[in-house]
Amino acid sequence: ARPLSPRPPPAGPAMYRLAPALLARLGRRRPWAPVPRREVVAASGEEELFVFPEYEPEPSGAVAATAAALPRRERAPGRERLLVAAAATGRPDPSVPPSGVSCSGCGAELQCRDGAAPGFVPAEKYRSLSGGPAGAAALRGAVCQRCWLLAHHGRVLRLQLPPEQHRRVVSAALRRPPRHGRGPLLLYLLDVLELPDPVLPQLPGLLGPDVPVAGLLVVGNKVDLLPADSPGHLGRLRQRVAAACAGAGLRGAPLVDVRLVSAKTGFGLEGLVSRLQRSWRCAGDVYLLGATNSGKSTLFNALLRSDYCKSRAPNIVDRATISHWPGTTLNLLKFPIINPTCDRIFRRQERLREEATKTEDQLSSEEKKYLNHLKKQGYFVGEVGRTFQQPKSSPVVDFDPDMLSYSIGEDPRHSPKKHEEREEFTYNEVKDARWCFDTPGIVKENCVLNLLTEKEVKLVLPTQAIVPRTFILKPGMVLFLAALGRVDYLEGEKPAWFSVVASNLLPVHISILSKADAIYEKHAGQELLKVPMGGEERMKEFPPLVPQHITLKGIGTTEAVADIKLSSAGWVAVTAHTEEKLLLRAYTPKGTTLVVREPPLLPYISTIRGARIAGTAAYRTKKPPSLVENLKTTERR
């Protein structure tokens, strides 16, 4: 009798339906196979690698589903890449003039003249969409090839754009004549992981002295990715954001408020909507500003599904394209803002009070499923509801009995598809409307993301709750964060704690000083250090690591003294004994910025750890529970 083998889990997402042979060709083990959490060798002279294999990214759903549907003989290695490459083919036609219609995903003008320019649509598709009686107007609601590949395959097409293109678009938009007799309200979005924000000091230069501004609302995004290291940590984060504004010279009358949100999980968004509605009478249009990858388009999409937009807007305005790749939005996107009358504000407050009395047990099965999904994504979760919704019209079914009757010698006849007219705003709806604009992100200079490929960016940028990894190092030991950063502990009398706050997909490698250079030369570009990837050829074009010496003095064994921020790859919080002097040497790729952040963003991060792993420098990881904002806490006895 054959021994029983463990049964795989039931078919669910597309990746679970792939055959084991195809998964092997894709370089991935079966998701239900046991995976070692780490590869460790004893610590005295020895190397340790700490990764999170369970967080390995899944293949794109569309590509995986297509590959699973292929006959077995066609499932050749690299076939999934060919499928995506085939989707990117399309011939340009230089004789066709631009459409004058913007892509609903990125805002670029749709055209089929140049495949390397923004807004490109293959000529065949362009002609099929615009060939009707409506002409180019029929392109409204269509997306360019770049947005289509991002949305369906997670692939990025490189565009030929001048370095200052995004900045010029934003500056021109802000210098428009004020509408409604009031200046615009600027909603500046910054990534709290990137503090101090590199673009915030450039904001006065974008505005210029002649731009009347009704106010500046600074919003710290992505708080869901960071664990609570102590009670009141959100208040401390808010103070850090306010301090960054003051350091950038933004204080006084223009700065009206500082908020913390998660555009992805919805945390803090209901409060943000209420704050924006209170600015209705004193402001005109609203502009979402910020650096690339700060989450502006995600926030734009979240506000589009909230009480901040007109009730019909979600059915008319398409959602912005979002991706890991910096600079996805290329031009302005907009939706009309609803007028917050007294009656509407009252009805909204009634809804919020009613929702605040609910517990998780009172949610429907679908709501619980979505809530659990968000809890896996971040530490802080909220719900964005809608008070004002356009009633859905029941679909009208056309029934033609003659189409169902046919003789024995005939084939069944199919009625041609009727063209569905796109819903549009009426003139009265938007003639005096105020608009919320999503703008292109300002490119961050001296950022490590500018040096990385598409696949590498997906590994470096965290998309799920960050699990801190803490290590205790003695003088003479070295910590690698992939091949993007390195921290050497040169001098000190006692061991110190180094807590890594970075994407769970980036490996942390511990070694000793005498072997560190050889490890980097041998394993940079390889699987051990993971990013960059591509072997020796990739490392020939990648800039070398350059050092910077850092001197710190400890303030206690539970409180970090500083963060060593390795550009946008993450940071290492350093905790040492009181009055203990440490001499460190940190490395980042040449041309990128290394920042010593004092005080640290999460000073008690080293306390979020488990027991020490015997024979290693590492502690077991611990993930704090998630907090749901808009639900009543269930009391447990």
From TrEMBL:
Coiled coil: 342-369
Domain NOA1/YqeH-like C-terminal, residue spans: 498-598
SUPFAM superfamilies: P-loop containing nucleoside triphosphate hydrolases
Annotated transmembrane regions: none
Keywords: Coiled coil
GO MF annotation terms: GTP binding
Keyword Coiled coil part of the UniProt annotation: yes
Keyword set includes Aminoacyl-tRNA synthetase: no
Residue intervals of the G domain: 286-336
InterPro entries: GTP-bd, Mito_transl_resp_regulator, NOA1/YqeH-like_C, P-loop_NTPase
Protein name: NOA1 protein
Organism the protein comes from: Haliaeetus albicilla
Gene behind this protein: Noa1
